[in-house]
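Table 4 source record.
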Amino acid sequence: MNIQSIFYKDKKGGFNKRLYMLYEYLSTKDHRVHFIGTERLPISNKSFGQHILRAPFSQTENLLFWLYFMVASFFKSILIAKKYKIDKIMTFSPFYTFLSILPIYFLGIPAITFVRADNLKHGRKRIRNHFFNLVDWAGIKISDKIIFVSSTLKDVYQKRHRIPEAKATVLPNNIPKTYLIDPDTRNELRASLGIDSDVFLISTSGVVSEGKNFSFLIDSMTQLHVYGIKLIIIGDEAKNSGEMERLRKITEKLSLREHVIFTGWQKDPVYFIAGSDLFVLPSKYEGSPNSLLEALGCGIPCLGSKIGEIVEILKYDELIFRLDQKEVLIEKIKRARLKPDFYEELKLFSKQRCHHYRFDWEKEASKLVL
């Protein structure tokens, strides 16, 4: 089968990780994937064809870049579809399905759209959100099947765009394997960060953005560091938004430089997570956070903010905190540090949720595409 897909450029983060995983899986199962984008992806499979649009201002990603990319994608998508006799179109956003509208409409090629996040929560500008609301509607309208990463996200989009139930399904992210490290490796990893073995280490991870709300966790450290607790923030900005600089300034202002460590982007963040004692994700919004699932796979207790997508994963009230009740989170972390029984209780609940997400994601995703 010949499958066509569009994505603008190689990026860091869980969104791209899953997209690349699916590209790789389909390409190794006797299917040919044709990718359209502005730069090559780190995929070298011979069944993965890359059709590159040389877009201006690719580094800055300004308005001219996006206008060029959209117009070029419209025409490139139908040319590739005709030349390679494309059987299916598969994208990871209604926006990219919308860019495939010509082969879908004129050639009758069925489209499968994975919805990984709510586009309207990733920006505050009214014009931007009106635009994405429109292209989301169009992309969903021309899709034959829509696969949501969570039931929470599915409910949001069904209410917003009146999607028929028969057209929508849910495939959450998974925990592909267990990430456990031995005590010696744990101590070596901590030593590389200048952290003693007896420190109670909190980790959090993800692409640094306002939505991840890492400042909430940094602020909590003003009351927690006196208990021998340190925080590591694993990740960096996908593009220069100024959020990382803002977090560093907050850390300096609160005199927490010795207690909050920024590791920067890590190719394998799970090893840093596995070397910690507790994972905390204070996000304001999410799709289905890979970092949280990876942390569950590390066998450590996890806490997350009370938003639908995180509650769907963690389920138990003991693992949830509200963003308007910072003291509740601080108290839970203190108890985890000082009371072994409570720590083991959190660990047990987290282990139970880990089992729920152990399945072959690529295999299940490919079934929905094919």
